[in-house]
Amino acid sequence: MRVPATSVRDMSQTLQRGPVSGTAVKKSSRRKPFLLDLYSTAVGKKYVMAITGIIGVGFIIGHMVGNLKVYLGAIEHNGEQHYDIDIYGEFLRELLVPILPHGYALWGLRLVLIGAIILHLHAAWSLTILNRNARPVKYQGARDYQVANFASRTMRWSGVLVLFFLAWHLADLTWGWLNPGFEYGAIYRNLDASLSRVPVAALYIVANIALGIHLFHGVWSLFQSMGWNNPRFNRWRRAIATGIAAAVVVGNVSFPIMTLAGVINFQPLS
Ligand code: HEM
After folding, report:
1. What's the gap in Å between 169 CA and the centre of ligand 1?
2. For residue 170, which of 174, 188, 208, 234 is within the disulfide window of CB 3.0 to 4.6 Å?
């Protein structure tokens, strides 16, 4: 039996993928690439929030654990005394040498982190706009309003605070603009010089508590966004979110407190 040419064309059109958003599109309009099409939906933006959030949490835990080396003080390295954390900083810059030139692998990781931060912010911003457009009229009952928005409002202020902290932090400990007598690579010295200033120590404490609140809600909701809400491990969600947030807050807040207490105390090494 001969199949008419028109029905073959119809079949091939039905087999082609439709837009993720499922909205009617003009026949002439160009189809977006799959990932962009997915990103234009609320579900896609939530995936991006969750995946970039996981990258951020991974960095924050790794960074905190690495910074704990400050408590190891000075050690002998190549016949000389050095602060252990300074050697660790150099190790990060030397990562994958000689396969890659000095500092390249670290820059690769930095680019992943910068990309994740930009996407996280963009997805957060456009989800806020989507939600606003979906509900242009505010909730009538104050109670409903509070329940529905507590997490998202907390996420917004804690996220903004962490972002401002990050800008300060880079200017303080990476570029040294805000750090008295900053010395490139002298991490122990720079940390002590920065965190011995009471207002700066207070800023670090407040910002890291805000980060803990952000991480708690973020880790909790990323299970939902990724669809990992099987009843078998649902009860672990709160424990995982609490554990990660508590470990980061305790570890990070310890640095300014221990500097003010004199436990972290830079002395020139011979
Ligand atoms: C009290 C807590 C913290 C301490 C003591 C600390 C310490 C440091 C130090 C010493 C550096 C410079 C490292 C180097 O020169 O090699 C640094 C860099 C950095 N920190 Fe932190 N940090 C803390 C919290 C945070 C938090 C909460 C974030 C993120 C929200 C963060 C993000 C970064 C980033 C992105 C860099 C730049 C890394 C690079 O360019 O290689 N830090 N931190």
Report:
1. 7
2. 174
